């Protein structure tokens, strides 16, 4: 697979396969212009740079999912608030407290998702600029390590708090919309929402515990591998010292 490097300038008749861009410092940056992954380009795996590269990919995926989810749900909330038809106070049986709850929930829902969307929009381009280069040696130029907590906040606001507020918004909207027509319909929304909320929270807790357990197992495995590598290095040093002593004794005998 050919790569367009600086040494090919001036050869216009040469054919290049799958190389659409050019890096002026190819040997230093190890950029893979042909679309290869960093593993295919020969970068080392078990290094701090590769671990940071994996974190970069995870952060980029989280920010992409957060931005899409936040934009979608905040748009639904705005449409629901604008399109809902409310009767005058003298002609409605909806409790005033329910209207206040609807206003507060809608405002919080939009604000939470807008905050997550703002964080994703500000951070994602800086991560994408480094991630699209497909080079582990440039991973230190990405701000994903420094802005780790902002990324986690955007992820939590969009997928956890934002989804909970959206479910509550559905129940309150059903109450405001159908209470004048049928109180049974309004109460049925709450009855259906309660088990859905329980399942949602149970899945969130189970997912978090499973993810924490997986990270713990991966960490333990990594520690065992490091201990094994340490033992191998110590054995190699011991064998090297023994060989040196043997050679020294032989030289003295001679």
UniProtKB/TrEMBL annotation:
Coiled coil segments of this chain: none
Main location per the UniProt record: membrane
Pfam families named in the record: Orai-1 (PF07856)
GO CC entries: membrane
Gene3D superfamilies: Calcium release-activated calcium channel protein Orai
Annotated GO biological process: store-operated calcium entry
Membrane topology, from the record: Multi-pass membrane protein
Family: Belongs to the Orai family.
UniProt name for this protein: Calcium release-activated calcium channel protein 1 isoform X3
Gene label: LOC112043473
């Amino acid at each position: 697979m050919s790569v367009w490097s600086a040494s090919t300038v001036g050869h216009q008749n040469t054919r290049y396969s799958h190389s659409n861009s050019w890096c002026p410092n190819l040997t230093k940056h190890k950029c893979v212009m042909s679309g290869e992954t960093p593993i295919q380009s020969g970068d080392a795996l078990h290094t701090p740079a590769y671990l940071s590269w994996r974190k970069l990919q995870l952060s980029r995926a989280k920010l992409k999912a957060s931005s899409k989810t936040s934009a979608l749900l905040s748009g639904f909330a705005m449409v629901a608030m604008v399109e809902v038809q409310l009767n005058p106070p003298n002609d409605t049986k909806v409790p005033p407290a329910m209207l206040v709850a609807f206003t507060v929930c809608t405002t919080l829902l939009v604000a939470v998702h807008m905050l997550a969307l703002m964080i994703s929009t500000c951070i994602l381009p800086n991560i994408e600029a480094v991630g699209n280069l497909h080079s582990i040696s440039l991973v230190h130029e990405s701000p994903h390590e420094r802005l780790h907590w902002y990324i986690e906040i955007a992820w939590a606001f969009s997928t956890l708090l934002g989804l909970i507020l959206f479910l509550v918004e559905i129940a309150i909207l059903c109450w405001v919309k159908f209470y004048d027509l049928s109180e049974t319909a309004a109460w049925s929304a709450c009855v259906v929402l309660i088990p859905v909320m329980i399942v949602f929270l149970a899945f969130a807790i189970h997912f978090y515990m499973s993810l924490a357990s997986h990270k713990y197992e991966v960490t333990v495995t990594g520690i065992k591998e490091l201990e094994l590598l340490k033992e191998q290095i110590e054995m190699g040093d011991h064998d090297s010292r023994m060989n040196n002593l043997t050679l020294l004794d032989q030289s003295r005998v001679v």
